[in-house]
């Protein structure tokens, strides 16, 4: 029991820190119609880690972290430029960026005996194995990102987004990054007051329930959390849709 708690609480805190940045960023992503940007930037950040590993650096070392951030920032700058240059096809460009980065990663991992494991970690993550020692730095990064978001807003959207995704993808994996970013934003779109709070509570409930069920049922935490967040989000979306003045109940 004590061992379960020791594993549970750092993973939950990590999830809450991810949600703190991803819920507000997700709402803005949904408003801008660039839903798949997190997949693209997260995949590019993961590619940076894989390139560092391919060059012989430690997979979870400082060099790999720096490579991930550099790759994500470079990708964000390119996507920021393409949005200004070709806004009408930005979503398609984001999709191409994701698929190219994903396939370059597969090619680099093809000759690596641990390639499949590295790819799985990138996609699914290992949230249950988050080390408590990682959390202070992640918390500091979260505070910095949120402070700059409040202060700068749209001016540094892509750069702040790249920093947030770089931190989170190595904690919880690409699938959970996408779920935390998009599901709360989508589920709360009919809420006018308290939307941020509702989105954060939805994500927090998903992480808490998923981690608890994972320790009880001995199932992978990442996929469980994704499914629970999606289920909670769908339930809230449907309930708000029926209760909204423009929803089905208002029809005559």
Written overview of the protein:
There is one protein chain. By secondary structure, the protein is an all-alpha fold. The chain has one domain: Orthogonal Bundle (ABC transporter involved in vitamin B12 uptake, BtuC). The protein is built from 10 helices and no strands. The longest helix has 31 residues, at 2-32. The radius of gyration is 18 Å and the shape is globular. Mean pLDDT is 84; it is low at 248-252.
Condensed summary:
With 252 residues, the protein is an all-alpha fold.
Topology (SSEs and partners):
Elements: H1 2-32, H2 37-54, H3 62-85, H4 90-109, H5 115-124, H6 135-152, H7 157-172, H8 174-187, H9 195-217, H10 221-243
Which descriptors apply to this entry?
252 residues; mainly alpha; ABC transporter involved in vitamin B12 uptake, BtuC; 78% helix
Radius of gyration: 18 Å
CATH architecture: Orthogonal Bundle
Report the order of strands and helices: HHHHHHHHHH
Number of helices: 10
Mean pLDDT level = 84
Overall helicity: over 70%
Q: How would you name the CATH homologous superfamily?
A: ABC transporter involved in vitamin B12 uptake, BtuC
Provide the β-strand percentage band.
under 5%
Total E-strand runs: 0
CATH topology: ABC transporter involved in vitamin B12 uptake, BtuC
